[in-house]
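Colleagues,

For the teaching module next term, I've prepared a clean inverse folding example: a structure given as tokens, and then the sequence designed for it. I'd like students to try predicting residues themselves before seeing the answer, so please don't circulate the second half yet.
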């Protein structure tokens, strides 16, 4: 059976909408392929809605062509084409996208679903290996982890055309390892009703760790933001360095839990704004040791490669893949 032929070219809008940044690109579909045009990011909090942010992007692009499709990948749970972002007071509605931008069809997906769709296309230039073999099992399940303003994970099951499994992994309970993490957990439990993974393994989570460690070590807090913690670590501050070490080790355990849960023999990819700045620490510190420290599954995990996605527009690539699928559905 021959694949349907699409009338070239078709133009769509794709977006990667998080708690901090709203990234957009135009996606040109020709004969079943897709090319990203003019990817760019905007500070999300400078706009009152995703629609005005998208309008600002389109105005800056200067392109006047009518749009055929739109796919926005958003950081939050999607229900019936609607998502309210977890860490930003925006609601994204598929029907409103179609109305506002005059597109034939629109789709709203989770941002980690988009990263999972992009993962098989990532090249050596798009990733930084941080442990394990060079490649994973051919055709094996791929798991992607997003750590930034929030935390989530998804898995790509590569059978047939591929299926993405995504939930809200960041809101599962944080599982401490060792006495120090147990003490950190205890201190966080006094502040939060639920100590989730996201309370530790995110930008705000880094600051939560810093505050907890400052109290445990009886040291003053010289940082007031997650970025300040990283800046202090770069200057050799012991408390900030310990904070980032704890973060990387806890991330190793969380990635291993997800690898075991999904059976991710194809590899683990870490996305988001934090990991690219911590590649040296992730590759040389305790991340991989903790990743493999899951007896009796140590050998199972040793065979799984772990990498950081350094391509800032990976989610846009995945959204473009979803756009092509949407275009075929309407063909």
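(Answer key — instructors only)
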């Amino acid at each position: 059976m021959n694949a349907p032929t699409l009338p070239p070219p078709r133009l769509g809008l794709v977006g990667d909408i998080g708690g901090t940044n709203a990234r957009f690109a135009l996606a040109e579909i020709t004969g079943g392929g897709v090319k990203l045009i003019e990817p760019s990011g905007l500070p999300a909090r400078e706009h009152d809605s995703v629609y005005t942010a998208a309008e600002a992007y389109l105005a800056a692009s200067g392109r006047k062509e009518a749009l055929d499709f739109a796919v926005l990948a958003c950081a939050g749970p999607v229900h019936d084409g609607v998502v309210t972002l977890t860490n930003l007071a925006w609601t994204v509605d598929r029907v409103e996208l179609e109305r506002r931008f005059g597109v034939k069809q629109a789709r709203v997906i989770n941002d980690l679903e988009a990263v999972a769709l992009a993962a098989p296309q990532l090249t050596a230039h798009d990733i930084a290996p941080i442990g394990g073999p060079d490649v994973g099992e051919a055709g094996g399940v791929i798991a992607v982890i997003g750590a930034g303003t929030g935390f989530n994970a998804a898995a790509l099951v590569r059978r047939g055309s591929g299926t993405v499994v995504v939930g809200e992994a960041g809101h599962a309970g944080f599982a401490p390892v060792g006495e120090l993490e147990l003490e950190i957990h205890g201190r966080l439990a006094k502040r939060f009703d639920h100590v989730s993974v996201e309370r530790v393994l995110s930008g705000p989570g880094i600051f939560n760790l810093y505050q907890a460690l400052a109290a445990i070590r009886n040291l003053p807090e010289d940082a007031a933001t997650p970025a300040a913690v990283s800046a202090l670590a770069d200057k050799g501050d012991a408390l900030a360095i310990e904070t980032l070490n704890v973060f990387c080790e806890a991330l190793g355990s969380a990635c291993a839990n997800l690898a075991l849960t999904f059976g991710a023999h194809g590899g683990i990819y870490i996305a988001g704004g934090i990991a690219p700045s911590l590649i040296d620490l992730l590759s040389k510190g305790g991340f991989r040791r903790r990743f493999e420290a899951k007896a009796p599954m140590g050998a199972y995990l040793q065979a799984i490669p772990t990498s950081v996605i350094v391509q800032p527009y990976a989610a846009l690539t995945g959204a473009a893949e979803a756009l092509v699928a949407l275009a075929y559905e309407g063909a």
